[in-house]
Write a structure and sequence with these properties.
The structure is a homodimer. Chain A is an alpha/beta fold and about 270 residues long. Chain A is built from eleven helices and eight strands. Chain A is about 50% helix and about 10% strand. The first copy, chain A, has a six-stranded mixed sheet with strand order 3-2-1-4-6-5, sandwiched between helices. Chain A has a two-stranded antiparallel sheet with strand order 7-8.
Chain lengths: ~270, ~270
């Protein structure tokens, strides 16, 4: 995944997974810095403000560098506002949020010479995504899933998920034992999300047959490794262009999806 | 799957699926005969006796031919007794029962020149098997699953499942509307079987998102058809031998698994 010499950028949300992962890497002596992306989500519980404080306190206590990138400062509007003002939102800001975070994370890592970008996705997260893709047999998504996404194009940073073997409850236990002060709340907009629904189904399977979730994900990786799939990860085949606005790689012919989103917002005003 | 000229053998259990399927084919004018395999299951509810009566009445009412093959008459012991007397049983006769039925069905169809053997497996059955194989990523089983199993070796009869698109509740409705008198009880030994557990999980998915079960199975067939899998169905690659006892194709070096089972029984006595 990465070596002790690689400068690692860790995406930090202020939740248990990313802060615990950062704590583990810090204790093991890896070269890390955090990136907190301010999404401007309030939802009556000051969600983003609290998350940022937890991340900042964590970094300060350990003398670690935490970069921050604030969406409102940079683009004038928060994620829910951007979602409301564009068609991509459709009442749920999750799609806009994912697109934005992916764009900012990669751009920040590239511009600051980080060789690897890591996220705190745990087994429950990864198994739920795999389950969603499998229950609908979305071939393109199934074959590209895994804990390591190589930087298959110049300008893209390698992405890895070191916690893919750990249950969510294990990460919560780690955070508790290490006395890490994290944000307990899920993002208020995640309520009713499909990923949470699939997590519940997998929890049922896990309760009835302990180990089912881990087995589901690891047996998938094994089957993939042993050559079950004929289809190539399309990302390796597509020739990417460069977005004229943000200069990041994009599969779109002109501007990337993110820059088009921001431009659509400007037009609305 | 089959043409109007093919003599079709339909495996009949006395349940709603196989009797409804037989009724449909009969009404459509296909050349069919039934095969009832007497398993000798009593379990306090005369399960096999009742099932056979229902199948016989059904055939008689329509002037159809029903062949019967009785396990106790041919092998001295019932399926539960065989399971109890052999290691393959392990307290549950399901594995012995499946092996026996597959052997008898194929042998009977071949010996009597039926070109196609059909079973009443419905969407719920097929989706549950696919779910079980996918949740454990059993590559070999995943790639061979489908509603048509070609006769890829001489001595093997083509097997098809014409009801794979129909929900169990649709077949129950058909049987009800057509006034078909079928066995309501599930096999008493199926209680606690994994297949029933996975059916319940799929029912939860279906209740929450109607169409989920059909979509799961059909999107699998589509992905397979579009070349998702690299692995060949191993059955096409393995050179089969001939069992010296029953003269059926087998992947075993000597006697086939079924004949070894029967021999193991003789030894116990």
């Amino acid at each position: 995944m990465f070596s002790r010499e690689d400068p690692i950028l860790i995406a930090v949300s202020g939740g248990k997974d990313s802060l615990s992962l950062w704590d583990i890497l810090w204790r093991l002596g890896y070269i890390t810095a955090g990136l907190y992306i301010g999404l401007g989500i309030d939802a009556g519980i000051a969600y983003s403000t609290t998350s940022q404080q937890r991340a900042e306190n964590f970094a300060e206590e350990r003398g670690l560098i935490l970069h921050t990138f604030d969406i409102v400062q940079n683009y004038k509007y928060s994620i829910p506002e951007i979602a409301n003002r564009t068609r991509r939102g459709k009442g749920k800001p999750c799609s806009v949020c994912g697109l934005t975070k992916r764009q900012i994370m990669n751009r920040f890592a590239r511009d600051n010479d980080y060789r690897v970008l890591i996220t705190g996705h745990n087994l429950d997260d990864e198994a739920a995504v795999l389950f969603a893709n499998t229950i609908n047999w979305l071939s393109g998504y199934i074959v590209r899933q895994g804990p390591v996404l190589d930087a298959h194009h110049p300008g893209l940073v390698r992405k890895v998920k070191p916690l893919f073997r750990f249950y969510e409850r294990e990460m919560a236990a780690y955070a508790l034992l290490r006395d890490i002060n994290y944000v307990y709340d899920e993002c208020p907009y995640a309520i009713g999300a499909k990923s949470i629904y699939y997590k519940e189904i997998l929890n049922t399977l896990e309760n009835d047959r302990p180990g089912a979730k881990l087995n589901f994900y690891l047996s998938f990786l094994r089957a993939k490794d042993e050559g079950l799939f004929a289809i190539e990860d399309q990302r390796n085949l597509v020739q990417l262009g460069t977005c004229p606005t943000c200069e990041q790689p994009t599969s779109a012919p002109g501007e990337c999806a993110f820059c088009r989103l921001i431009r659509a917002m400007d037009t609305v005003n």
